[in-house]
Please model this.
Amino acid sequence: MIGSVPTVTTAVSLDDVAKRFGSRHVIDDVRLDVADGEIVTLLGPSGCGKTTLLRLIAGLETPTSGVVTVGAGSAVDARRKKAIGFVPQSPALLPWRSVAANARLLLEVNRSANPADHPDPMDLLVEVGLGEFAGALPHELSGGMRQRVALVRAFALAAPILLLDEPFAALDEITREDMRHLLARLCERSPATIVFVTHSIPEAVFLSDRVAVMSPRPGRIVDVVDIGLTRPRTPDIEDDPAFFELERRVRHALHAGMQR
Amino acid sequence: MRARAVIAPIVGLAVFFGLWELIVWIRDLPPFELRAPSDIVGFLVENPGAYWDAALVTGAHAGLSLVFSLTIALAVGALVAASRFAEDATNPVLTLIQVTPFVVYLPSIVLWLGGGNAPVLLVGTLVCLPPFVFATVAGLRAADPAARELLASVDASAWEQLVRLRLPAALPSISTALRYNIGLALIAVYLAEGGNLSTSGLGFLGERAASFNNANGVWATVFCMAAIGVVGLVLVGVADRVLLKWHASQR
Model:
């Protein structure tokens, strides 16, 4: 890549997207382009439709109006091609499967769409510190460990697009910090385009290239903050004054969005 | 833990049979009213051969009925769990099967299929079918919605979802239904054997003993039935330990 002229292509494009459930307007008028390899966070108060937006990109919902483009085609096409790695809010591990078997799960279904080359889930488990738990059942793990298995399961797909839906929402603050540092490490190495949903400002600033701030229902993108911190993102940047300044800007954008 | 698992059931049974024995002796009940367990066991020990053979037949009838009904229930359950229409169409029929006393239509079945194993297996299968279908449907539907969504996000087929997610998730409720159905299947095949034209099984022995006013003979078949039931429940318990060690019920 370095040395050649980078051609920026769009990995995910939302054009005037709206979603209604009956008479309930969940999201409205959402426009957002995510470039190939970019990490964009959707940040907003709970109930603002962040999760719905992510599900639209994952092809799990269809928009009421507007167009969702993922890669070259529709979100549903991307889903069929296993182009999307999804990390849900709850780890959604299958309780009867060992950690290793859970990490492999998504590679075992719809096999014909598997990429020619993908990382070994076992190597990823070792990398996130779960090597010795490969044979354990999910109920024997802590909440943070389960969510690490869910991350491995998604990264093992080697999908060009990763969608993470508040994966750390149920974790305590200390575990959460560890998890965002771990996720940053995994993201730095992966060429995937990542859309991350959270309501945590430090998480959004630490991980993202851009933060899309959403307003309460009906959810709209009210501001997009460029983060521009250097990569790789290591824990020490959280002490950088630039980090605080970005947190402040994102928080103000969030509050401005709440007033509308 | 291990010792308790062995001792507790023995204590429970000893208390139950001890009280039974005591009531018969203290109240000096006449033999036609209630036999003492010691009489019945004595009778069994004197004539073991016929009861052992009959118990094998009845055990096979009940076991096959459970296998047939579970096989049908898995197929019907998978269909019903996928379609509300299929559910609404099958529910009344299953309820009808469940609430109709099968002794009412047993003679028709015997006339239709003749004597032998066929009517016994049909009644056993019919009786176990509704609980298995209800349990299968409830279990298949209970699969974690987040896991369903996860599999949908990589476009897993309906079959893959069934095999990887829904069926394993349904195992605990199917196991519970199996525990109830062991009792139902045994009772059904016992009565079918008794009301049938064939000459094998505990139901037949019990029926014949009753017609000769041989109360010990009737009660001996009941004790054999209980023994088969206990063996069945122990087998389910072992299967649960292996297949459901991930489930909260086994921890």
Summary: The radius of gyration of chain B is 22 Å. The interface with chain A takes residues 144, 146-147, 149-157, 160, 164-165, 168, 171, 244-248, 251 of chain B (CB under 8 Å). Residues 158-194 of chain B form the longest helix (37 residues). Residues 124 and 188 of chain B are 5 Å apart (CA to CA).
